[in-house]
Amino acid sequence: MSANRNVPSPLRIALAALVVVAIVIALAACGSSGSKSSGTSPSTKATSSTTAAAASGDTVNLKLIAYKPDKLTVTAGTTVTWHQMDPGVHTVTSGTVSQDGGGVTMHPDGTFDSGQLATGKTYSHTFATPGTYTYFCQIHPATMHGEITVK
Length: 151
Fold this sequence. Notes:
The chain is an alpha+beta fold. Helix content is 18%, strand content 40%. The protein has a single domain (45-150), classed as Cupredoxins -  blue copper proteins (Immunoglobulin-like), CATH 2.60.40. A 5-stranded mixed beta sheet has the order 1-10-5-2-3. It has a 5-stranded mixed beta sheet with strand order 4-12-11-7-8, with no helix packed on it. The N and C termini lie far apart (74 Å).
């Protein structure tokens, strides 16, 4: 038997290193942003407690670069809590996103905005008025969208 069978080839080592670098870059991109935010807006309040929302089923998880569930129906007066479970940061920003010619344009409407939510943080908003509220992540506007229907 040859002694070289248990030694990885230089090509395999280089390929493994390239895969590790690509994963690190992808994870770092999920957490980077050029803007800073205080985390709250005047009309909303960020919170670190999800007990009431979790008990009533009015929680949206931010996980795997998606809102889960992406659509939720609640009654007027309900407080919805978003729980950020991904590495890096996400936002919960009311408004819409348009995608034209390969570009993405964000159209926040100012109804609510979480600011940047780090892993493990939560954001809550009380929906007092019936209607449909769309929202998106300012970090990942092309892929992260959600909708709250208030009855």
